[in-house]
Amino acid sequence: MDRRESIRSLVLGSLAGSILFESCTDDHTEELVDKIWEYQYGRNPQELEVDHQLLKEQFFESSEIQMITTLSELILPPTPQGTIQQAKVPEFIEFMAKDYPPFQLTIRGGLMWLNNYCNRAYGTNFISSTVQHQKQLLDQIAYPDPNVKQQKFEVNFFSLMRNLVVTGYFTSQVGIKELGYVGNIPNLWDGVPDDVLEKHGFSYDDWSDKFHDPSKSSEIAEWDEDGHLIS
Predict the structure, then answer these.
(1) Is the pTM above the cut of 0.70?
(2) pLDDT tens, 133-153?
């Protein structure tokens, strides 16, 4: 099982809420046009107003967004099923940084740490480093030390980014489609099995098609005194 499949399995097991973040509030001003990420459902008017406020100002600079995109692709590499850009993961992380300000210092500081490390080790910034060097660096901060209570800053940074990337991807339309998650959908009932009906001396006659018509699923069935379905 590869890394993406492992993450996919974890998300399927925790989709009900263990990895999702709660919404917080903040005030911002100027509208973004091409980098908007927003909730598409389940928002009351007050929450929508907060969302729209948050979407009016950009927190990360374009160079930081580029780093976030590169880092996100290393965490969840593109596949034929979907990409980080298609799922608007950088926009999601931008939104979360504004929605929950405590994320800001950790993410921005972590991006600076990546650049400083690459500059010292490879003589270049994180984005310009080779993929091999990028992965070697991330391997050093990808695993928290279970023997220490206080993890290093860079380890906490990567843990936060990993959670945001996975959450942003697998709660998007692209990610949900990749999971194969269809949510709660009504089933079509074929009615009582024929052998059970026959055992009790009943039959549906020509009414079986009624069970296959979703438009009539809210209708209440009526039966005559002999147990026959009449509507």
Answers:
(1) no
(2) 999 999 999 998 888 888 999
Q: Which own/partner pairs from 38-41 qualify as long-range (CB within 8 Å, at least 24 positions apart)?
A: 38/95
Of 151, 127, 129, 130, whose CA–CA distance to 141 is shortest? 151
Residues 6+ apart with CB under 8 A from 166: 7, 10, 11, 19, 75, 76
The 8-class DSSP code of residue 124 comes to S
As a whole number of angstroms, the longest Cα–Cα distance in the chain is 88
Tokens of 217: 């699923």
| Residues 196-214 pLDDT 10s | 888 888 776 655 565 666 6
Q: Rounded to an integer, what distance in angstroms lies between the CA atom of residue 96 and that of residue 78? A: 22
Alpha-carbon gap, residue 167 to 46, rounded angstroms: 24
Residues 6 or more apart in contact with residue 215 via CB below 8 angstroms: none
